[in-house]
Specification:
The complex is a heterodimer of chains A (280) and B (470). Chain A has helices at residues 5-29, 32-60, 68-89, 93-112, 132-165, 181-214, 222-242, 248-267. Chain A is flat and about 60 Å long. The model of chain A is unreliable at 116-128 (pLDDT under 50). The longest helix of chain A is centred in the middle third of the chain and has 34 residues, at 132-165. By secondary structure, chain A is an all-alpha fold. The two termini of chain A are 18 Å apart. Chain B has 470 residues and is of the alpha/beta class. Chain B folds into three domains: 2-158 and 310-328, Glutamyl-tRNA reductase, N-terminal domain (Beta Polymerase, domain 2, 2-Layer Sandwich); 175-301, NAD(P)-binding Rossmann-like Domain (Rossmann fold, 3-Layer(aba) Sandwich), CATH 3.40.50.720; 334-453, no CATH class. Chain B contains 16 helices and ten strands. In chain B, the strands form two sheets. Chain B has a six-stranded parallel beta sheet with strand order 7-6-5-8-9-10. A four-stranded antiparallel beta sheet of chain B has the order 2-3-1-4, with helices on both faces. The radius of gyration of chain B is 33 Å and the shape is elongated. The chains are: A mainly alpha (280), B alpha/beta (470). The A-B interface holds A 161, 164-166, 168-175, 178-183, 185, 244-250 and B 157-159, 164-169, 171-175, 263, 266-269, 289-290, 292, 294, 298-299, 301-306.
Chain lengths: 280, 470
Amino acid sequence: MVNFSLFWARMALSLYTFGLATAWITLAVRRQTLFRLARGAVALGFCFQFVSLVETGVVTGHFPITQYSEASSLLAFLIVAVFLAAYRFYSPPSLAVVVFPLVFALTLTSIYGSDGVARVGVGSPAAGVRNGWIYLHAVLIFLGYAALVLAFAGGILFLLAERRLRQRPPKPSPSRWLPPLETLDRFSYRALLIGFPLLTAGLAIGLYWADAMWGTLDLSDPKIALTLLAWVVYLLLLFSRWSGGWRGRRAAYATVLCFVIAAAGWLSGNASGLHHFFPR
Amino acid sequence: MNYLLIGVSHHTAEVARREGYALAPEQIPAALAQLLAWPGVNDALILSTCNRVELVFATESLDWNPWPALAAIYGRDLTANAGDFYCHRGDAAVRHLFRVAASLDSQVIGEPQILGQIKAAYADSRAAGGMRGGLHPLLARAFSTAKRVRRETGLGRHAVSISRTAAGLAQQIFGDLQGRCVLLIGAGETGALAASHFLRQGASRLLVASRTPEHAAALAAQHHGAVIPFGAWTEAAAADIIISCTGATRPILDRAAVGAILARRRARPLLLLDIAVPRDIAPDAGQLDNAFLYNIDDLRAAVDLNLAQRQQEAVRAEALIEQETTKFQRAARGVQAAPVISALRAQCEQIRRQEMERLSPKLARLPEDQRAFVEAWVDTFSHGLMQKWLHRPLTAIKAAARAGDDTQLVAALDQLFAPPAGPVPLPLPAEAAEAAATAPSAQPNAAAPAADDDARTDPSPARSARHGAG
């Protein structure tokens, strides 16, 4: 069977590139109408990526998560899904400026990364990985990451907006692209609130499964350690917010920190003993 | 069409002199009726605001004298006061009107009210029977130019008053002011003004704290607000915006007090506006997370910065005005050429018809079928000949009119070809009438080239009335 998934992935990448460029141009020329074009391109790219993922799954006969390329593509796909869903409720184009580059980078590495050149003839992954729970584990964590990406985008914009307000003399005209401070704070908080249970459930499944498989948890594994650390920071962040006080700048910094730890965990994937991706 | 604009504004006359020329809204319809009936006047518009009185005319001759008409509406001779007035004709009048509409001539450059006022003036003129073609295209272009300036420059974007600056800051923090609570510390006039500005912008609740509770109660009652005891700052936690303007010599809110308010607010952001001198809020309170403190100097500096920015934007706006003036005049000259062109065509067509009629008795001798054939042939031939012959002169007229460098050519042709009175009433046969109708320039309709402006701006009375309130 001929595998077109790489072709679809490339289509998705071109559309994401276009969407990214258009989103940046939107900021420069300050035309909101242009942003609709960017969003449309990204939504179309999203469809192509879906087709690419399904085809990869069909051809290889397993859920597309066993290789780094597949996993990046899946994560990019889920980030776009969460972004588009969030866009229905809250939609400043400026969020896209932070989110689209990440999606672009993930899709790019999924195509041109070390293992992404050819996808046919992948060796069958270990039997354990075929377990449905492990897929759920990955997808839930990925969805948690996607929500974290949105929270991170909100946090970055918050810090920019806050800096603008602390300038002297102040700029009284609202920025054309920075949303109000409180809106950003609330958006980030909601994204965190949605992401946290997903990440928690994903981690719980992983921990339970690891326990069942090996009876032990290897905390020296960088991916496990970093993801757990990100989860702890995440929990502290939410807890301190509920107990009052951690809002605004501090919360934004904590969100950024949380994201950075999670991203480090993601990038450490190949160094992980348990989470290594399967060679071609 | 010749345009003339005469007026007084804050640039040329002080308020004491200016008020003598102001026309009250109830005087305007009568004055307009008088001007529209004035010999030599095709159309008129009166704009009377607190900063300017301007009369715009479309006249038949280039050198029409406006003073007698002015004397008639003011009931006194104004030639002695000519120093207060500026009078622009042609391009200068167009440019001036565009600048006024785009708020470049305003006292506060970029203020948005003037466009609404001109729209109201337009509606007045229309109601009085004006705007029947003469000034209509000019006004339509003035509206679209003003919109273009607003869209393509930042002229109106930068707030240039303390209260608008404060409102802009609140907007950056809270977004919508709907449902926000404002606390005013000190019941003085300045503070009350700032607070009422926030209430007008949508803030829904006012709290007042003052050392003299009676003042606080009076002010709170005026705005349906509530009084909180002076010094009980934990109760201030409900407020999203605190405006302080007391005569106190020592800070009323120190860092610890602001910190306590923030803690009670569970660290939701707080906007602090200290417009008192000496300052009411300790400066280091502004370093607290989620507290945004601005003193009077910060706000003034922002206003100054914006004024400077407006000046920069004004330079760009002037360039746009220049472009639009040129474009408008070019189009207007095209309109001027239209009657000449149609007259020329009509005259040639008349000659052709006459010659055809002279030919028909001779053709009557021919047999029926041949006659029809020859008649059709001669008709086509003469029509083609006429078209070819006219092509170059007509192209030259249109080009000259568009370029605007040779109105003399149009005038000369007008003299040579225009019939003594009105268009030629000829009973054209169906075919020729059709040919005339398909030639676009043959329509002596002065408003035609401005049609696209109408579509864009549509300054109809109903719509203008809505904007007119501004």
